[in-house]
Amino acid sequence: MSFRKRNIGLSPGVDRNAVPNAAAQLAAPETTPGIRPSPDDGRPTTSTGTRSLDNLLAGHAGLPMGKILLVEENGTTDFAGALLRYYAAEGVIQEQKVHVVGVPEQWGRSLPGLIGSAESLDEKRSDRRKDDRMKIAWRYERLGEFGAVAGSRGAPNNPGEQDTAAKEAPAFCHAFDLTKRLTHPSITNMYFIPVMSSKESPFLAILKQLQTAITSSAANTIHRIVIPSLLNPTIYPPNASQPEHVLQFFHALKALMSAHNTRVTAMITVPLSLYPRSSGLVRWIELLSDGVIELCPFPHSADAMATSGAATSQEEPPQGMLKTHRLPVLHERGGGSDQNVGQDWAFVLSRRRFEIKPFSLPPAEGDTEAQEASAPGGMPKKSDLEF
Amino acid sequence: MPSQPPLPPLLAPYVSNLPDSSLTLVSSILGATSNWLVLRFLHAALSSPSPNAAFGSDELHNGTKKKVVLVSFMRSYEFWRTEAKRLGLDLARLADKQQFAFIDGLSELFYAPQPTATPSISPSGLGSSPRTTLPMRSPPGAVPGRSPQPAWPTVTGARGNAMPKQAEPGIAKKLHFSGRGLASLDALEKDISSVIEQQKSSMEDGDELLLIIDQPDLLLAATGPSMGIGATEMSEWITALQQHAHATVLTLATDAPLIHNASTSGGLATPIETEHAALVIGLAHRARSVMQLRTLDTGAAKDVSGVLRISRGGGLNASEESLEEREALYFIQRDGGVKVFGRGES
Amino acid sequence: MAPINLSHRRTHNLLLISKLLSLRDTASPLTLVLDSLEQPATPLLKEYIRRAKLSKVHVTLIAFETLKQPDGVDAFVSTRRKSPADIVKEVSAVYQPVAASNPSRRRLILIDSINPLLNSKRVDPGFHLPSFLGSFIAPTSPSAKVDASLVVTYHQDVPELPQQSPYSPTPISELTYLSTSIITLHSFSHVLAQKAARDRSLAPPVFGLEEEQEGVLLGRLDRLVGTGKAEGIVIELEHRRKSGRGVLEWYLLPPASRYSPQHLKEIVTLLDDNVLYNPPMEQDPGAGDEEPTSTFELGLTDRQRREREGVVLPYFDAQHNDGPGEGGRILYDMGEEDDFDEEEDEI
Fold first, then answer.
1. How many domains does chain A divide into?
2. With left for phi above 0 and alpha for psi between -120 and 50, is residue A141 left, alpha or beta?
3. What DSSP string runs through A215-237?
4. Would you state the pLDDT for residue C275?
5. Residue A256: inside a domain
6. Which chains have 3 or more CB–CB distances shorter than 8 Å to chain B?
7. Parallel, antiparallel or unpaired: strands C246-253 and C269-270
8. Which H or E run includes C7?
9. Does the residue A5 lie in any domain?
10. Where is C111: in which H helix or E strand?
């Protein structure tokens, strides 16, 4: 067991001291912004806009091109929607063509505002973390930094550069603020594809537009397909959930992705409370997707959250569990050997980030002493430290 | 980790030398996919037997020459080509040598991207679906780029005449689904059997043709009873194709919702679940062997990808042939090599 | 009493299965074979064909899932793309020449699986299962006297599709109602495992699809079968006699490798007569064959058990209702082995 992630040595852009431009050259030989080769096998990947999600994707540190990522969510929350907004916003920043299916243009105006590259935010965070260091039990320290493990290469690390630098030196993944609104010149370049109800498959028109847009664009244009809340009855007509419509759409989408397997990625969310995972239809949708991630939010009572699941006072309490059912490329090959497989994941959505970290159980409920010790802001009492 | 032989010894007896008119099922679930096992079937049939012989020396070894026709509904040719290369199989060369033919059931099955690519078949009647007649405005030849398949207009003849490779190198035929019901299945069958016959035309006595159909259950799921296709129709379709081949390998999904909902929820199962279960279980009754892939019961592990259980199917002629049933663990390495080992071994 | 009963049963029921499998006296015009992935019907159908060959019965196989004509089958009727009416026509056509040359020959018609027909989308709603099956047994032309038996296989684990009409009975209930004999097949090793569990008052294990484990279709493994002693298939027979009385019996059909194809004597035995299923009484009851032998003797002999039952527990007497306040006395009878010390011990 090594303490270093195996892929660090393989990563081309690992040299933190290199000038940003050189690093960028290494990271993106195709000079396409937002694309970098996977440290695992060199295939082109792009960022989902969420650093810790990128790092979850089977060692590729990003979503491999030509792959569909399906995000499922239980309950009535909209964490998946936040992930999708990050994904779309990242596409806008990277000047990729973003195609959004089924939602009005307001959706595009509500994308989260840019803070800077994700690395710069992490840098700041870890600065702060240094101050906090003494308070954190050493063994928890690495857990909190999970998001900073695999994806921090090939980008400027200077916190001073921030917003302006993000555009010039190609950062791979950016950080966004959900309370702000994204302003970017290319935000007008988003395409909104409405869902029309029709007697035939309502997906027919969508597919046609996607196909046309992708085949008619220049060869080096990168596309992102964003499908929020697939089959949501407020967006889709009732016949959309017929397997011959939705599954044919997924199959054709898969075909489209594999025909342009260096230029397109897609992220789709599905409400599980309407279409449960135990149904055959959803299972086929999953089988047709390359990556499947399920979000299981905790019941959202603020009080309950304060005491559940936070390993230490320094970490925000998790808001839900995240399960990976299938990961792109890895499972296509047969699955198994990824270091992240089989972990329990928790996620935290805060104003500035969506973070995925290993889930650890809180101290037992009845253990009031331990809870007091981990109460917010509470430094360990001196008596606790003395043996 | 030392590199593994392309064909793990424990697996070899089950994937090679399939008897005449036998049916082998490979079942997979969401977290335990079957592509690696399909590649092992390809390798067992196509690789030259002597370990250091290069390709092209097949003629030297006596015994039966094998050909493979692979129909894939879920994966592109690109995927199979790259993954086969990791095992030392050059599918493009094998296709040139008429030993291998790939039938693409992914790229244009339901939606043909180019209006010029006429549907390869003219289904007899039963109302044409609008899916085939998508008016596409994209100017032809507008995309020269890095896209691996600049889709140039191809007219695929119904007979699969002339060249086996028309549109793109390596792809013998692209399937198109049109219409509904039996007519559409007939058309697909004709397309596939024409490629098989093409392959057979260069076969000598004693040569064997292996037909691998990757996830034909997708066809059922994405059409279903409302389009006049059910489990019986699909399994008849498979029977018809089986008759063209020496041996047939099918991969099918056996995820719990697709198999168990039909029996447990007491008539409340959706048609997609009932039909799928009827197809898969019905085929298992016909199969000689069923190779079942699943994830570890105890959760994920770092050095185990999943569990492989090999069982005798209902169609095994037990009095003439014995097939040892067994269960083993497998592990896919990063380089594509596979370890297959018993529980407790490594 | 029991042994006499058993030998009576043995004589009668073995004769019955022999008659049924050898199609003598048209004991059962319509036999329904219910099989599953855990125990497919193939070995039983092979046995039907073998016996039919021995007694020169003409065998027709209506193939819904068989690809090639198996050995011993005289006529092979493929059903692909044929309507039920076409199938009936063809089945009677293949018998015409035989009937002409040898009118007294008996006939066996096998349907390898009825499920595809029941689940077919193509069959028109007017399809009537009873008359379809009936038309094989009762030929259309009255002049030809055919002595036909129909054996229909039904896969129990293939789900049924929802009914066209919610009020009509399901096909499987129609089939079981129509048939004169119903044979349900079980895997011998599973029957043994279930019996062993029942004997220990455990929940009987389930196999294959019933395990409901994701990714598992078949549960049979050689390991379960063990050293090969538990081979063969268990036949659960439910037969309706002409008198209307029913017979229910469990049999064991040994694997085909155990006897020669020309073997004439009855090979089927009662399941109760099997040594593995019903171990002989001389053996320690309770110690099953597969129980691991241990250095500790956990079982009791009959004598030990009787003695144990005779022991009066110390509080036994207190349990008699002697009124409140009376309980709790310890009754102890001094034995000779007790070393009673007046000064130390007090009762």
1. 1
2. alpha
3. HHS-TT--EEEEE-STT-TTTS-
4. 83
5. yes
6. A, C
7. antiparallel
8. helix C2-21
9. no
10. strand C106-111
Nearest CA among B188, B159, B193 for reference residue B174: B188
Output the domain CATH number for residue B164.
Answer: 3.40.50.300
Cα dihedral A123→A124→A129→A132 (10° resolution): 160
Q: Would you call B239 and C255 a contact, using CB atoms and an 8 Å cutoff?
A: no
Task: Compute the residue count for chain A.
Answer: 387
Structure tokens at C168: 């009509």
Q: How many residues does chain C have?
A: 347
Q: Residue B277's domain spans which residues?
A: 12-50+64-122+154-341
Contact A201, A249 (CB under 8 A): yes
Interface mutation vs chain C, best among B193, B319, B326, B329, most C CBs within 10 Å: B319
Specify which residues A101 forms β-bridges with: A193
- What pairing do the DSSP bridges indicate for beta strands C233-240 and A174-181? unpaired
Residue in C116, C162, C256 nearest the CB of B267: C162
What interface predicted TM-score (ipTM) does this complex get? 0.82
Q: Tell me the per-residue pLDDT of C42-85, one tens digit each, with 9 for 90 and over.
A: 989 999 999 998 888 889 999 998 888 888 899 999 988 888 88
Which SS3 state, helix, strand or coil, does residue B240 take? helix
Contact yes or no for B278 and C220 at CB 8 A = no
Kindly report, residue by residue over B27-81, the tens digit of the pLDDT: 999 989 999 999 999 999 998 654 444 444 344 444 567 899 999 999 999 999 9
Residue B203 to residue B101: CA distance in whole angstroms: 14
Domain boundaries, chain C: 2-273
Closest CA to A357 of A307, A321, A327, A328: A321
B305 burial (CB, 10 Å; 0-12 / 13-18 / 19+) is buried
Q: Are C328 and C316 in contact (CB under 8 A)?
A: no
Our count of domains for chain B comes to: 1
- List alpha helices for A116-202, DSSP H: 118-132, 138-144, 162-168
Architecture of domain C2-273: 3-Layer(aba) Sandwich (3.40)
Nearest residue of B to residue A277, measured between CA atoms: B257
Please name every residue paired with C151 in a beta bridge, in sequence order, or none if there are none.
Answer: C31, C110
Facing A280 at nearest CB: one of B258, B333, B336: B258
Domain with A329, as residue range(s), is: 65-135+176-372
Mapped to the 3 state alphabet, what secondary structure does chain B carry? Answer: CCCCCCCCCCCHHHHCCCCCCEEEEEEEECCECCHHHHHHHHHHHHCCCCCCCCCCCHHHCCCCCEEEEEEECCCCHHHHHHHHHHCCCCHHHHHHCCCEEEEECCCCCCCCCCCCCCCCCCCCCCCCCHHHHCCCCCCCCCCCCCCCCCCCCCCCCCCCCCCCCCCCCCEEEECCCCCCHHHHHHHHHHHHHHHHHHHHHCCCCCCEEEEEEECCHHHHHCCCHHHCCCHHHHHHHHHHHHCCCCEEEEEEECCHHHHCHHHHCCCCCCHHHHHHHHHHHHHHHHCCEEEEEECCCCCCECCECEEEEEEECCCCCCCCCCCCCEEEEEEECCCCCEEEECCCCC
pLDDT at position A282 over 90 = yes
pLDDT 10s digits, A170-229: 688 888 888 888 888 888 888 899 998 888 888 999 999 999 999 888 888 899 999 999
Cα B270 from Cα C190, distance rounded (Å): 31
- List the beta strands (DSSP E) in chain A: 35-37, 44-46, 63-64, 68-73, 97-101, 112-117, 174-181, 191-193, 223-227, 264-271, 291-297, 320-326, 345-349, 354-358
Distance from CA of A219 to the nearest CA of B (A): 4
B304 secondary structure, DSSP code: B
**C157, C209 in Cβ contact below 8 A?**
yes
Distance in angstroms (rounded) separating the CA atoms of residues C69 and A41: 51
DSSP letter at B36 equals: H
E strand intervals along B29-180: 66-72, 100-104, 171-174
Q: Per the structure block, which two tokens stand in for C145?
A: 């006297």
